[in-house]
Design brief:
Low-confidence stretches of chain B: none
Radius of gyration of chain B: 28 Å
Structural class of chain B: mainly alpha
Number of helices of chain B: 13
Shape of chain B: flat
Number of strands of chain A: 14
Number of helices of chain A: 21
Oligomer: heterodimer
Distance between the termini of chain A: 58 Å
Low-confidence stretches of chain A: 1-44
CATH class of chain B: Mainly Alpha
Helix content of chain B: over 70%
Strand order of the largest sheet of chain A: 2-1-3-14-6
Number of strands of chain B: 2
CATH architecture of chain B: Orthogonal Bundle
Number of domains of chain B: 1
Mean pLDDT of chain B: 90
Shape of chain A: globular
Largest sheet of chain B: 2 strands, antiparallel
Order of helices and strands of chain B: HEEHHHHHHHHHHHH
């Protein structure tokens, strides 16, 4: 190797070897042995960068922060925001949080989660108890918001977005078909109305339901049952075959599917948005977040044609009032026990979501997250009733905002839906359990299994795959 | 005098020997030093995580908090789960259903181009290769638009409402179609490169001897292309065992497909999403064993029908 002979002395070779070894050592430290040095507690001593983790994108989080900082410049003068987006959905955030907890490094200060994930992290002691922090504003929080934030008697989260149950329907088509929303209050009435609707408009359906429903459908229906649990800690057993809630909900959905009143496509399938645009779907039983999607799907051409109400009760075939409940509760912010700047996180949250002016300002700036404070409701209604298009919103976007697309009564209805919120008692293995339960529902809806056999199979699967969900 | 000179030479040689040895050692050491960075990275970032995952598969562990040793319980739990077998069956189906048509079609196209049996090869080659360049997610979304039940191009054209993507029995074939269409270009290029290694003189000699096109293909080309086919089948099998994106994006819009159409990797991801790292790792290792098994079967088949180097 003449090249080496000329270019590489023994000393150089040693240097190279030592350099490589040093790099490798550094790399190993980086990969496996990272440690965190606690930073400032986030008080007023110096500048603090608040590390906030959310999913989907960082635009709303940044807009909210700049809005609140403009509103309270003194309180937040030392705080800047860094937004981390590990992926498109809440699963990605939960994964990133587990990794951070595992590495004990770069643990975010504030994390957005869905309520379904709270139990896992709270049970394992990974989150700060926020009871003392929330207590001063506890009485101002809407009932649904307080439920959202509470886990086993402690307030473990800051409520961010309640996903209440709202029925969206085509008021004009219902009137032409001679149907009133009150006709839907029983299961039989709903099916009869669906048939009447379809008979009047042969290419339209009162609902859409395919064979692969989204998992939120389970949370929406099951949350109406106050005593429903997937796993009972007392008897240490899964409840799918013993608690009537599961059988009732599965049977109801199968009835709807078999009655021929549902357009056989699933939510968020390729056909869904198009079906709204082509006026094939006359109603949708869903969460309040649909206020953002439906106007876009249906387009401005359907402005004023859609109306909203609480969910029908679907009694007496369902033993509970289905107008109660929520879709997986909603979404929350948590502060991990190992956060570097918990005080700064609390300061920001205090001015952002737990303050009347702050929560209204962010709602005006972003438009999607309705304030969850009782004291802010009148401010919101004032803004809605004022009906003035903000300068920074285009006319086309303004036309699609909920109060314009569904009418000004939308906001009042949404507030009343917050009072009917019930949060399902999710356990630490909720993600796995819901995946198994959803498979059972798919089997029932596709006709490959009866309700009883599907639930029995799901129960067996949970026993073999999960065991005791409270064992860490 | 002569003796003195000889003694001096011997002592000089003795003095030079250690220096020479040191030089030789340095020469021997140098290439390994250059290789060291790769091996260190490979050990830390690849082999290390493999063994970490192997260790993890014997524990119940969420990634934080305490880890509980379970022995083989995670493996037994996976093996007893019917969804594992369904999804493993789907993965094997996707592999078995697409690999033979894919390799036959791509090899045929390569032969057409190599033997100049079609015109416009310069235009033809990039067109065939193009699907391989597109992002998998983008391609899957295009297929979604083609095969959607109510508003898909296919159903609209034929005035039908086949649930191509909703019914597992149909959607699995759409996934197979996507796999063939997307991978055609890659294997076309591989086979074309393989065909160029065959000396034209062999073909010419066979032609002079009166061999037909089929005979040239059967007795000249195919035997010489044997190593390429071996590589193609092995490589395609390994990538098929890791199939994930196509069925999920196509049939579930990016969330996890229903078990009837889902690949086995979904079980790994489901456990990962739920924080069950131990069970997730055990699925990964079981999948590794299945991959070894499938590769072994292919190896055995090739060996049974001829030599494999």
């Amino acid at each position: 190797m003449p090249f080496l002979k000329e270019q590489m002395s023994r000393r150089s070779a040693l240097k190279l070897g030592l350099g490589v070894a040093a790099s490798a050592t550094g790399l190993s430290a980086l990969v496996g042995c990272g440690s965190s040095t606690p930073g400032s507690a986030g008080g007023s001593s110096g500048p603090v960068t608040l590390n906030l983790m959310t999913w989907g994108g960082d635009a709303d989080a940044k807009t909210a922060f700049s809005t609140i900082k403009n509103l309270y410049p003194d309180a937040l003068k030392n705080i800047s925001l860094k937004v981390t987006v590990p992926g498109a959905n809440d699963f990605d955030v939960a994964k990133a949080l587990r990794l951070a907890l595992s590495a004990r490094s770069n643990i975010p200060d504030l994390i957005q989660l869905n309520r379904t994930q709270l139990s896992e992290f709270a049970t394992n002691g990974a989150l700060m108890d926020l009871t003392d922090f929330i207590n001063p504003v506890k009485n101002d929080l809407l009932n649904g918001a307080l439920q959202l934030a509470t886990y086993q008697g402690k307030i473990m989260a800051i409520p961010f977005q309640i996903k209440s149950k709202i029925f969206f329907y085509r008021q004009d088509l219902f009137e032409r078909a001679g149907i009133s929303p009150n006709d839907l209050s029983t299961t039989e009435g709903y099916i009869a109305a669906g048939k009447q609707f379809h008979a009047h408009f042969p290419d339209k359906y009162i609902i859409n339901l395919g064979t692969q429903p989204q998992q939120y459908i389970l949370g929406e229906f099951l949350s109406a049952y106050p005593d429903a649990h997937i796993y009972d800690q007392g008897s240490q057993s899964f409840q799918l075959t013993t608690n009537p809630a599961f059988t009732e909900v599965f049977t109801f959905l199968k009835q709807i599917k078999d009655a021929g009143i549902a357009l056989p496509i699933d939510d968020f399938s390729n056909d869904w948005a198009q079906a709204f645009k082509n006026e094939k779907i006359g109603g949708v039983l869903i969460g309040n977040w649909m206020k953002e999607f439906l106007p876009q799907y249906a387009t401005a051409a359907q402005t004023g044609k859609w109306a909203v109400s609480l969910w029908p009760k679907f009694s007496p075939s369902l033993s509970v009032d289905e107008s109660l409940g929520s879709e997986a509760g909603g979404s929350i912010y948590v502060i991990p026990a190992g956060a570097r700047n918990p005080d700064a996180a609390k300061t920001y949250m205090q001015h952002y979501l737990l303050d009347r002016r702050g929560s209204v300002a962010q709602w005006e700036a972003i438009g999607s997250v309705t304030p969850l404070l009782k004291s802010a409701q009148q401010d919101v209604m004032d803004v809605v009733n004022k009906d003035v298009k903000p300068d920074n919103v285009s006319a086309s976007d303004w036309a699609l905002q909920a109060q314009n697309f569904f009418g000004r009564s939308y906001q009042e209805l949404e507030f009343s839906s917050f009072d009917t919120v019930r949060v399902f008692d999710y356990d630490p293995e909720a993600t796995n359990e819901i995946a198994i339960l959803l498979q059972a529902l798919e089997n029932v809806l596709s006709g490959s299994a009866s309700v009883a056999s599907a639930l029995q199979q799901a129960q067996n699967d949970m026993q073999s795959q999960i065991g005791n969900p409270y064992h860490s | 005098m002569l003796l003195q000179v000889q003694q001096e030479n011997v002592s000089q040689k003795k003095n030079r020997a250690p220096k020479k040895r040191a030089k030789n050692q340095k020469r021997l050491l140098a290439p390994y030093l250059f290789l060291l960075p790769f091996f260190l990275l490979f050990i830390v970032l690849t082999i290390g995580p493999y063994f970490y995952a192997l260790g993890l598969s014997f524990f119940r562990y969420r990634g934080y908090g305490s880890a509980t040793f379970l022995g083989l319980a995670n493996y037994l739990s996976v093996l007893r789960y019917h969804v594992f077998w369904t999804e493993l069956g789907n993965t094997l189906f996707y592999w078995a259903a697409h690999t033979l048509p894919l390799i036959v079609i791509s090899f045929s196209l390569a032969c057409l181009v190599r033997w100049k049996l079609i015109r416009g090869a310069k235009f033809f080659k990039p067109i065939v290769f193009l699907p391989n360049v597109f992002a998998i997610v983008a391609v899957s979304l295009v297929f979604q638009n083609l095969f959607a039940t109510q508003y898909g191009v296919i159903n609209q054209f034929f005035h039908t409402t086949f649930p191509w993507l909703e019914s597992a029995s149909l959607s699995r074939w759409v996934v197979v179609l996507l796999l063939i269409w997307r991978n055609l270009g890659f294997w076309f290029v591989v086979f074309l490169a393989g065909l160029t290694t065959i000396s034209p003189e062999l073909d010419e000699a066979a032609t002079i001897d009166g061999a037909t096109v089929w005979q040239r293909l059967r007795f000249v080309t195919l035997p010489l292309m044997r190593p390429i086919f071996f590589f193609a089948f092995i490589y395609d099998a390994i990538t098929s065992m890791r199939l994930y994106t196509e069925p999920n994006v196509l049939t579930a819009g990016g969330s996890l497909a229903q078990p009837g159409a889902a690949p086995v990797l979904n079980l790994l991801v489901t456990n990962l999403n739920a924080g069950n790292f131990g069970e997730s790792s055990s699925v990964g290792w079981l999948l590794f064993l299945v991959t070894i098994g499938v590769a072994g079967v292919i190896f055995g088949l090739f060996r049974a029908t001829g030599e494999v180097e």
